[in-house]
Amino acid sequence: MATSTKAYGVKSEKDNLKPMDIQRRDVGDDDVKIDITYCGVCHSDIHTARNEWGGSTYPVVPGHEIIGHVTSVGKNVKNFKEGDVVGVGCMVDSCQECAQCKNNLEQFCEKGATFTYNSEDKHIKGQQTFGGYSTSVVVNQEFILNIPKNLDEAGAAPLLCAGITTWSPLSNWNVNKGDKVGVIGLGGLGHMGVKFANALGAHVVMITTSPSKAEDAKKLGAHEVLISKNEEEMAKHNGTFDFILNTIPVGHKMDPYIGLLKVDATMVLVGAIEPLEPFNGGGIIMGRKRIAGSLIGGIKETQEMLDFCGKHNIVSDIELIDIKYINDAYERVIKADVKYRFVIDMASLKN
Fold first, then answer.
1. Helix pair 162-172, 299-312: axis angle to 10 deg
2. Tens digits of per-residue pLDDT, 299-325?
3. For residue 118, what is the domain's CATH number?
């Protein structure tokens, strides 16, 4: 059985987002039903709605930074109850049996994770999953996250993607107190990287092409700002970074940033899911440097990130919008005209 639910989505790659009705499954024994209160707007939403990565199946209802209140639970659900404030991130299911799932890396499920939107829906035949630009969602209990009570609900929404995307590499590569950490790019991802690295006790350097972002970067927790277009300043920092988080969302020159790394240091890419400009292999060979990538995080790690945010009172800097403003918001995201993440007040859809 399924229930008709209000949503906002697109029926083709050329469409603007519009109101539509979608089908949500009824609550099963292992399910949690959530009344969605807030949903963040990620650049991935735009890529999928507009089929810029290919593979979009229409209609598409985006949204994978979901905050809401539990309204119903299945008979096997033990850890959640009605009224709890919870979150849903980029995944709503996985096989739960493969080596990666058993290692709490559901994002790398060997049978393919079920993503929150634009994946095959295992529960409604012939339908793909629909995301958080909607009034409610039903999700398996294993993919529900507890939101610390002290966190602002709207500000917490982007933690479910922008937060875990930047937390996971900082955690996996063991960024510690006193490390010199560079964060390239001050957008939705970069501003979270700065906050996390600062809270971990690192010496944080915001690396940007825009001198105008220096003041904001320091307010967010950066100790220094390095303008990457300034060759003299870049040269002063060469060979001094323990770790660099690269959040640039498009192809770019890598060599200047590779030069900043110490011997045996790592730069992790989390932004550019597209071809990069060729770089000189000598830059990594002469210093045994590493370039790596990272994709969100598993459910266990995401909960650890949320608990860390609760302890340190970390949320995203957001602009709260009405659902009717979503198409304008998409254009502003493309122009990097938001500080630093749009979040939809889902009461505007219910009304």
1. 100
2. 999 999 999 999 999 999 999 999 999
3. 3.90.180.10
Number of helices (H), then strands (E), belonging to the chain: the values are 12, 17
Residue indicated by tokens 């002290």? 150
- Per-residue pLDDT, averaged over 106-115, amounts to 97
Burial of 120 (0-12, 13-18, 19+ CB in 10 A): middle
DSSP code at position 225: E
Q: What are the b/e assignments for 189-199, b being 16+ CB within 10 Å? A: bbbbbbbbbbb
> 310 lies in a domain?
no
Judge whether 175 lies within some domain. Answer: yes
Contact between 193 and 245 under an 8 Å Cβ cutoff? The reply is yes
Q: What is the pTM of this model?
A: 0.95
Note whether 153 and 218 are same-domain residues: no
Residue percentage of the chain with pLDDT more than 70: 100
Mark whether 157 and 169 lie in a shared domain.
no
Nearest residue to 39 via CA among 129, 136, 107, 113: 136
- CATH number of the domain that 227 lies in? 3.40.50.720
Q: For CA atoms 292, 295, 297, 299, give the dihedral sign.
A: negative
| DSSP symbol at 278 | P
Q: Which domain covers residue 188, as residue numbers?
A: 163-293
List b or e across 121-147, with b for residues whose CB sees 16 or more CB atoms inside 10 angstroms: bebbeebbbbbbbbbbbbbbbbbbbeb
**Using 50, 70 and 90 to split pLDDT, how confident is the model at 351?**
confident
- Reduced to 3 DSSP states, what percent helix, strand and coil does the chain have, rounded to the nearest 5? 30, 30, 40
Structure tokens at 39: 């949903």
Q: Which pair of structure tokens corresponds to residue 55?
A: 């593979």
Kindly state the tokens that stand for 182. Answer: 């560079």
Lookup: tokens for 264: 């045996």
